[in-house]
Design a protein that fits this description.
By secondary structure, this protein is mostly helical. The chain has twelve helices and two strands; from the N terminus they run H-H-H-H-E-E-H-H-H-H-H-H-H-H. Strands 1-2 form a two-stranded antiparallel sheet. Strand 1 and strand 2 form a beta hairpin. Helix 7 packs across helix 8, helix 10 packs antiparallel against helix 12 and helix 11 runs antiparallel to helix 12. The mean pLDDT is 82. Pfam families: BPD_transp_1, OppC_N. Its main location: membrane.
Length: 303
């Protein structure tokens, strides 16, 4: 079935089908893509497929707290397939909702950081001079500090919340895109099509976003994919430390933190299953990003 799929893709010779053929030529990347697709579907449809709404405190029973996997609730109306946490919350439902928040935070912060870093990088690479020096020095200062340190300082100043952690993640991410875009723009700016566009009297904004931007996108797509996994991991770390999302909106990191104190007492499932979900998400994204890097970079093809 796998070989038939690749053969059908190869029959239509277009840039998109060649991209699909190159991407799905790796079984590991295909596995990562399928796993990532399943995780995204589980996160999107969490309210539909979850056995319980973990945010509805009225339907949580403290008598169900820390029940082992496979046990039935005291009322007999729910089986905890992955066990229950210390609040009597179904772990499967909590993980699905936690995936939803973690993926949303990771994707949203990456998209915003990409838009900001791409715009500043294009401006620096095309304009040059003092504008380039100013933008790059700010990016250098940003990259000089560890991302988790910057995020911790911002969250300590602004407080907890989804919007606060997205701002913190955008702050630590935008410099990567700015430097990459600027490096690519410096190479592309010297080419003939940019010179021709300038001679035709096109505006700088049109040259940057209509002609320069498409040639800067391939490396940015790879970095953005990797940064989604990095943002999810960083958000989980901050939530684990107690500076991420509030208790009423638990992400995977907060779920792991809630069960950390029970690991030595044998209640492993409270931290283990959320940690497994986080690991699967990061691994799937990295597998897809690695294959995107190989397909979008012609220098790596055939190696």
């Amino acid at each position: 079935m796998y070989s038939k799929l690749t053969q059908k893709i190869a029959q239509a010779d277009t840039p998109f089908t060649r991209f699909l053929q190159g991407f799905f030529s790796s079984r590991i990347a295909t596995f990562g893509f399928i796993l990532l697709l399943l995780i995204l579907l589980a996160a999107i449809f969490a309210p539909i497929i979850s056995p319980q709404n973990p945010y509805d405190l009225e339907h949580l029973d403290v008598m169900d707290s820390r029940l082992e996997p496979g046990k039935t609730s005291m009322e007999g109306n729910l089986t905890f397939l992955l066990g229950a946490d210390d609040q009597g919350r179904d772990m499967l439902s909590a993980i699905l909702y936690g995936l939803r928040i973690s993926v949303m935070v990771g994707v949203t912060s990456t998209v915003i950081a990409l838009a900001i870093g791409l715009s500043l990088g294009l401006l620096a690479g095309y304009a040059g001079g003092r504008i380039e020096a100013l933008i790059m020095r700010v990016a250098d200062i940003q990259l000089a500090f560890p991302p988790i340190l910057v995020a911790l300082i911002l969250l300590a100043l602004t407080g907890r919340g989804v919007d606060k952690i997205i701002i913190a993640l955008v702050t630590v991410q935008w410099a990567y895109y700015a430097r990459t875009t600027r490096s690519t723009a410096l190479v592309e700016r010297k080419k003939e099509y940019i010179e021709a566009a300038s001679l035709l009297g096109l505006s700088p904004l049109r040259i940057m976003f209509r002609h320069l931007l498409p040639n800067c996108l391939p490396p940015l797509i790879v970095i953005a994919a990797l940064q989604v996994a990095s943002a999810i991991s960083l958000e989980a770390t901050l939530s684990f430390l107690g500076l991420g999302l509030p208790v009423t909106e638990p992400s995977l990191g907060l779920l792991i933190s809630n069960g950390f104190q029970y690991l030595l007492s044998g209640k492993y499932w409270i931290s283990f299953f959320p940690g497994l979900a986080l690991l699967a998400t990061v691994v799937a994204i990295n597998l897809v990003a690695d294959q995107l890097r190989d397909v979008l970079n012609p220098r790596l093809q055939g190696q």
